[in-house]
């Protein structure tokens, strides 16, 4: 892949899809800023692994729902390296429950973690990228934001909002040459889906045209494409990575 920028910040990157995005982008020559909010040992180990493979990486601690911390994090990158060309809003949580039993706080907590955090990231990225009139952001949404899911009214609202928000940011960023896109993974093998029983996994897999869950690296490759110069005319797009489960 070809990239005109140098630095990328990936939120929630110490494990799962975020960690794989970091490895993939580092392999492609970007300096990756690995954001984590807990477990520094995992983030440090990922940085060491990337550096051993000849890549450039740094760890950066903040909770993506904390506006002040997020802004400080972005400023630290720009102060240190002079630019931030790419952002991947990947941090996300679930808190599944049928709507009738869901407390309002259980709804808003997921909205804050998945949508409000990404809003802060997109807005701050737009500010710093505007100075160079160049940049790209990918928001990691979900198939559930496109098709809904029982037990996930909070999660689906956050991810559906993320898809719509990316398009609005794309319209605001276009005149400054800053692109905003989202990806909508289906079922991907990570800690988020490891809790599903084998029976549930088999039921889901049977319904997926490609008959399997996806891997984090299959998501990472799509994110890399959307950030790269190869996607220079792609903005406001929602790229499905779901094995055909939702077309
Ligand atoms: P995961 O294994 O549960 O990892 C989530 C990551 O996000 C963790 O590193 C977590 O940090 C971090 N995080 C959560 N809240 C944060 C916050 N406020 N600030 C900073 N970091 C935070 O999940 P995953 O499967 O890799 O999911 C990554 C993204 O893909 C999420 O947005 C998820 O919704 C989306 N997605 C996943 C799937 C799937 O099937 N796995 C499908 C569609 C979309 P801690 O270690 O501190 O908890």
Number of domains: 1
CATH architecture assignment name = 3-Layer(aba) Sandwich
- Mind describing the biggest β-sheet? 7 strands, parallel
Report the CATH topology name. Answer: Rossmann fold
- Beta fraction: 15-25%
- Relevant CATH superfamily: NAD(P)-binding Rossmann-like Domain
Spans of at least 5 consecutive residues whose pLDDT stays below 50 are none
> Can you count the helices?
9
Mean pLDDT: 97
Spatial separation of the terminal alpha carbons: 26 Å
Describe this structure as you would to a colleague.
This protein is α/β, with parallel strands linked by helices and 247 residues long. The chain has a single domain (5-239), classed as NAD(P)-binding Rossmann-like Domain (Rossmann fold, 3-Layer(aba) Sandwich), CATH 3.40.50.720. It is 49% helix and 15% strand. It is built from nine helices and seven strands. The chain has helices spanning 16-27, 40-52, 67-81, 104-132, 144-147, 153-173, 191-194, 198-207, 216-227, and strands at residues 7-10, 31-36, 56-61, 86-89, 135-140, 178-185, 238-241. The protein has a seven-stranded parallel β-sheet with strand order 3-2-1-4-5-6-7, with helices on both faces. β4, α4 (104-132) and β5 form a beta-alpha-beta unit. The protein is globular and about 50 Å long. It starts with 6 loop residues before the first strand and ends in a 6-residue tail after the last strand. 43% of the residues are buried. Bound molecules: NADP nicotinamide-adenine-dinucleotide phosphate. NADP nicotinamide-adenine-dinucleotide phosphate (NAP) is lined by residues 11-12, 14-18, 35, 37-39, 63-65, 90-93, 113, 117, 140, 142, 185, 187-188, 190-193.
